[in-house]
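Q: I'm building a small set of examples for a reading group on sequence design. Run inverse folding on the following structure and report the sequence directly after it, with nothing in between.
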């Protein structure tokens, strides 16, 4: 493969200075192919986004029915929260979960670690409270699956 060498530019000046180069060859950088999105991670991101949106909507509806109970009926409340401040915390938590789901969709490494950490804490809670049920098995399967596809995150 022939390689072109950079030719010195002709100077419009008197030509006494050092030659200048018009361009240099591009610096070689290793190009990794973008990792593909595993179907399980895509499903997990969609479910996580749905949970985040549900938390945001339920917190907003609770605050709206709490402060505007004359206009809005209380049957709109999805989750019954005792305090309007708790509903605001629920909206913020839903926003964080929605951002986490977006990062999972884009396969960011910090989202992988955060999700694995949450799943581990959930497994530990379910194990130590003797709640080994279908929920425990589902969380365990998702935990093992994420560990298996960890190389798809960057």
């Amino acid at each position: 493969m022939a390689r072109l060498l950079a030719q010195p530019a002709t100077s419009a000046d008197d030509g006494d200075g050092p030659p200048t180069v018009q361009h240099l060859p591009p610096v070689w950088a290793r190009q990794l192919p973008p990792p593909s999105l595993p179907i399980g991670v895509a499903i997990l991101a969609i479910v996580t986004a749905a949970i985040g949106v549900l938390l945001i909507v339920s917190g907003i509806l609770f605050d709206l029915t709490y402060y505007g109970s004359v206009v809005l009926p209380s049957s709109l409340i999805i989750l019954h929260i005792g305090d309007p401040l708790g509903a605001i915390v629920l909206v913020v938590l839903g926003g964080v979960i929605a951002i986490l789901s977006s990062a999972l969709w884009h396969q960011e490494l910090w989202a992988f670690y955060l999700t694995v950490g949450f799943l581990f804490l959930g497994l530990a809670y379910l194990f130590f409270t003797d709640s080994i049920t279908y929920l425990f098995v589902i969380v365990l399967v998702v935990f093992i699956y994420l560990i298996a596809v960890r190389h798809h995150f960057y």
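The chain has two domains: 38-106, 107-154.
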